[in-house]
Amino acid sequence: METSRVIWVDGDFVPWDEATVHVLAHGLHYGAGVFEGIRAYGTPTGTAVFRLTEHMERLHRSAKAYGIPLRVGVDELVKTSRQLLIDNELESAYLRPLAFYGLGSIGLNPAGAEVHVVIAAWQWGAYLGEDGLENGIRAHVSSWRRIDQGMLHPNAKGTGGYLNSILAKQEAVKNHYDEAILLNYEGFVSEGSGENIFVVKNGAVTTPPVTAGILEGITRDSVMTMLRDDGHQVREANVTRSDLYYADEVFFTGTAAEVTPVREVDDRPVGEGRPGPVTRNAQDLFQKAVTGRLEAYRHWLDYV
């Protein structure tokens, strides 16, 4: 990964190489933390962060779900993110806010451990590759099931919960696929290892509901809104594995993945085996929105 100059750590901007954590930090041992992924884009009128406030609000919701006390408010996190981009001289970037328990407890109960809050920013290209954005990726249905709501909080970005995603991603890559698709314990499609999923059939767009164990993605919400505004029928409903095989189009959405087409699922071509018109429209709308070229969605941009 590319490095940048400074990282914000508990109120101070420190050099990249000095932003370290103690080996006995509680969060390192037990995955006790929450995080966000956010992107900043270059626009004709300067650098803008996409839906920055909503991301920081979700960070706070995730912390609340896991009982992690955050003493840094949304407004301060937003202001700090802007300054971090300025200090690192980044026109476009990926931002990673993270809150986690540090020293003070080594048992399961984190009481007494200090909560640290950091924000890093660096340049990061297409998560699933430029070729994936253009031609689509190969995915498979994982043998691992998505974490259940009776176990953890699927709709919160808890660090420990992503071990589930790591197992699915590693399995996919080992078997020569680009990405995994996880089913929930009822057998319905939930999401990718780090993305929400959309299925298109006969022009209608379907994405799994929150009750399917998904993260309620901000990019997901953006794409749903823009497609509806553009006249598409978009609904939230359970999706089956066979729906993936019968689909005309399938695509992923996420901050890192943006809008990535899926050209194959389990070695079966999706539609004609290449990105379809709805997917291309979603990609076009999204790229125009994040770069400030659609007036209707400029309120989603937080200019630096």
Description:
The protein is an alpha+beta fold and 304 residues long. It has 2 domains: 6-122, D-amino Acid Aminotransferase, Chain A, domain 1 (2-Layer Sandwich), CATH 3.30.470; 130-290, Alpha-Beta Barrel (D-amino Acid Aminotransferase, Chain A, domain 2). 28% of the residues lie in helices and 29% in strands. It is built from 8 helices and 17 strands. The strands form 2 sheets. Strands 8, 9, 10, 11, 12, 13, 14, 15 and 16 form a 9-stranded mixed beta sheet that branches. A hairpin with a 2-residue loop joins β15 (258-265) and β16. α2 (52-65) crosses α3 and α6 (218-229) packs across α8 (277-290). The chain is globular and about 55 Å long. The two termini are 23 Å apart.
Highlighted features:
single chain; 304 residues; alpha+beta; D-amino Acid Aminotransferase, Chain A, domain 1; D-amino Acid Aminotransferase, Chain A, domain 2; 2 domains; 9-stranded mixed beta sheet; 8-stranded antiparallel beta sheet
